[in-house]
Structures are given as structure tokens and as C-alpha cells.
Amino acid sequence: MATTPADLDVRATMPHEHRTACDTMRAALLTEPISDADWERAAPSWEPHTSFTAWDGARCVGHAGAFHFHTVVPGGERVPTAGVTRVGVLPTHTRKGLLTRMMHQLLLASYAEGKAIASLRASEAVIYGRFGFGMAGGSHALSIDTRTVRPLRGAASGSCRVLQIDEVLDVVPALYARVATRAGAVDRPGFMWRRSLQHLLDRSKPEFVVVHSDADGTDDGFAHYRLAWGENSIGANHNTAEVIDLFGDGAAAELAVWAFLTDIDLIHTITTNSRPIDEPLWRAAGDMRAVNVTSRFDEQWVRILDAEAALRARSYRPAAAVTLSVIDPLLSDNTGTFRVSTDGVHRVSGQADLTVGIAALGAAYFGGTSWHELWAAGRIDEGSEEAARRADDLFTHWPATWCGTFF
Ligand SMILES: CC(C)(COP(=O)(O)OP(=O)(O)OC[C@H]1O[C@@H](n2cnc3c(N)ncnc32)[C@H](O)[C@@H]1OP(=O)(O)O)[C@@H](O)C(=O)NCCC(=O)NCCS
Questions:
Q1: 5 pLDDT tier (thresholds 50, 70, 90)
Q2: What CATH number belongs to 5-120?
Q3: Is the pLDDT of residue 281 over 60?
Q4: Ligand 1 mutation pick, 55, 95, 107, max ligand atoms within 8 A of CB
Q5: Which of 121, 322, 358, 359 shows a CA-CA span of 20 to 30 A to 270?
Q6: Predicted confidence (pLDDT) per residue in 102-159, tens digit
Q7: Is the pLDDT score of 170 beyond 90?
Q8: In the chain, where are the structural domains located?
């Protein structure tokens, strides 16, 4: 007899079920079951992690989880965040409402844990809007021609050193924590570093970390990069470097790291999967056409879990107050009208300037999607173009929001 949705159970995952849940999620994402060696490395990341699974009898058929970390918001405060991850339902069990049930439990649990927002990276852009996630900030993949990008303007003076492998874990996580301060940046738990630096640390790939220090000798930027000889590259002399991470204490420090990378002998192209949409390299380049956007990604999907706490945590530009009426069918505490100004955020009654669903608030939260864009795209339920512009006067924030961490 065919299974009906009523026969399927959704519940918190028990610790001894983590590996099964991991294999289910990997199968949904079209990858092989995890090997013993990889599970040994991955298991610690399943411990401090909120996890819900779907079951058809004894068979695990779906998973949705969340890491616990903080996200920088405009003004520099860090808000507690549910980093939604490891989402998948086996193809035998899709479209029976299992993700809906797991996601609702995950969002309710995350709110109860005191998280102000949930954030995720989506495999497909059509999945998460229905759960109240809005696209809060994008990123660009770049391809850079190192022969024409130089000379670069604006690079800080100082010096660069390439780290020895045994220095990397002592230097890089602490430097990242100090300099990754754009709105949207997240703190990276140790397991994320072990994963992203794995090939460098186990010497299995030609990966390196360069650190830039300012004129006083204080480290202020770094890049983690990988080199590759191109096919027939000795004759063609065309090799590529891939930048995995590049963070600095402001644009000048990042440009100093770019100046180092774009000057490495034998490298003619640098690619990178994720840079902010206002990457300074473009305008700093000798020839701006040396910096090509090869794709754009809807990087940050944000779901506001506690509207009052989230709105209070960020800063605003000096401008007239705006009232937002927010509708949230799942987390009813968020439904209400908020007066937002540089004097604070207060619940009020009466007519609002803009009426929006919780997904629109998530999209606009970091200033990475303008209220005007939302208005123009029909994503504001009620309110005028003029009110959307006034809301932008308060919410706009530079540099552009960008996370740069995939989870
Ligand atoms: C995405 C995924 C988890 C959805 O799980 P699911 O259990 O089928 O989702 P639900 O049944 O709860 O669907 C809820 C609604 O979303 C829609 N939906 C879900 N996934 C969708 C998709 N990939 N494309 C279009 N619509 C989708 C459903 O049609 C349904 O719509 P309805 O309410 O109008 O009927 C599942 O398809 C999957 O595992 N995909 C492959 C792995 C993946 O992409 N994971 C996400 C990683 S970020």
C-alpha cells in the first residue's frame, strides 16, 4: 500500500541518527554516502546543530538542520542566527509536504532558541520564499585577467607573506574574525575552517594562504587560493588561480591582497566563486574589463525570526521615520506594526507606510535589496513608491551586504 503523508513522521533527530540523516541528505543532493574518514571529520559539526528528520517507518527520508552562529548586521552588531543547512528529501518522498513540516519545526525551534534570523544558501531560488525567506544579498563570480588588471589603485602599503602550513590555523581564523565585518558576514565555527582548509592542511592540493600586514606590521588581510596548471600550459602559458577566500580590514587591505595575487608569475587568470557585488577591484583596475562577472548568485536568503530584535539590532541612516506593518503567518509575534527610526524601533498602532510579508522584510533587512526594488517587483502588499523610497533612506547600507561563507 502506498505511503500517505499521514504515515510519515517528522521529529527532532537523535544523536545516534546523525550519520543516517547525513546520508539521506547527501542522497537527496545526489552525492554518495559519507565515507568513514569523512564522517570522522564531519561528525563534530552535527553535535551543536539543530536537526529534524522525516521518517517512513524506520527509513530516514528527509532532513533539515541549522548551525548556530552570529551574523553581522548594519552598524556592526552580531545577531544570533540559525544557519539553515543540510536540507533534502529523498526523491521517493518529495512533494508530500515533508520539507514544509521539517522547516516549520526548525523555524519554530530556532525562534524558541532565541535566534533573531535564519539564513541559508539555496540550491534553487524557488524553494524558500514560501517559508518567509527573502533574497537579502547577492554575490558575483569573477574571472580576472591578471595581465590587464594591473596597475591597481587604492592598495594599502605594507607587506605580504605566504604562511607555512603549520601557521595557518593559528593565524587565519582569528584574522577572519577581526576583519570580516561586512553586514552579512558570519562567525565561522572551527569545523568550517577544518573543512575549507582541509586540502591545504593535508597537503593534497596546491593551496596557499597569503597574509598582508600594514605598515606597522599588523595583519589586515588574507587570501586562501589554489593554483592549477592549465592543459598544455607550458606552451600556451596560461594558468589559473582560484581564490577560495579573500577578506581584509576594508577595501585598501583587500586591494593589497589582490595586488599580490595578480602579480604571481605564470598565472594569467584568477577565478573566484563569490565576491561582493561592490567588489572594489573592478574600479581599482588599470583596465576595468579585466574583471568579468561570470555569474551572479542569490547568496543570502534571510528569514526574520524575531522582527523586533532584528530591527533593533541594526543601525539606520539619519532620515524620517517609517512605519512597517509586517505579516507573518508562522511566527505570529512578528505580525504587527513597527515604527523604525534612528531613535529606535517601537511597536505602534494605526496606518502603516508599507505593509509587507515577512519575506520582504528579510530581503530588505541588510539594505542589500532596496524597498524600491521590492515595490517595483510587486513584493510590497500595500504602500506607495514614495514610502518605499523613504524606507530606503533609512535602510540603505554600504558597503554592500555579503557573506562569503557557504554552509
Ligand atoms: C527541495 C526539497 C527539499 C523539497 O522537499 P519536499 O518535501 O518535496 O517539499 P514540500 O513537499 O514540503 O513542498 C512544499 C511546496 O514547495 C514546492 N517545492 C518544493 N521544492 C520545490 C522545487 N525544488 N521546485 C519547485 N517547487 C518546489 C512544492 O511543490 C510545494 O508546493 P505547494 O505547497 O504549492 O504544493 C526536495 O525537493 C529536495 O530534496 N530536492 C533536492 C535537494 C535540494 O535541492 N535540497 C535543498 C538544498 S538548499
A1: confident
A2: 3.40.630.30
A3: yes
A4: 95
A5: 121
A6: 999 999 999 999 999 999 999 999 999 999 999 999 999 999 999 999 999 999 999 9
A7: yes
A8: 5-120, 140-298, 306-395
Greatest distance between any 2 Cα atoms in the chain: 73
pLDDT score for 323: 98
Q: Is 8 in the pocket of ligand 1 (CB under 6 A)?
A: no
Question: For ligand 1, is residue 103 a contact (CB within 6 Å)?
Answer: no
Encoded amino acid at 381, one letter: D
- Cβ density class 352-391: b for 16+ within 10 Å, e for less: bbbbbbbbbbbbbbbbbbbbbebbeeebbeebeeebbebb
pLDDT at residue 236 above 70? no
Q: Which CATH architecture has domain 306-395?
A: 2-Layer Sandwich (3.30)
Whether residue 87 has its Cβ less than 6 Å from ligand 1: yes
In 31-155, which residue ranges form alpha helices assigned H by DSSP? 36-42, 98-112, 146-149
* Domain 140-298 of CATH type 3.40.920.10: no
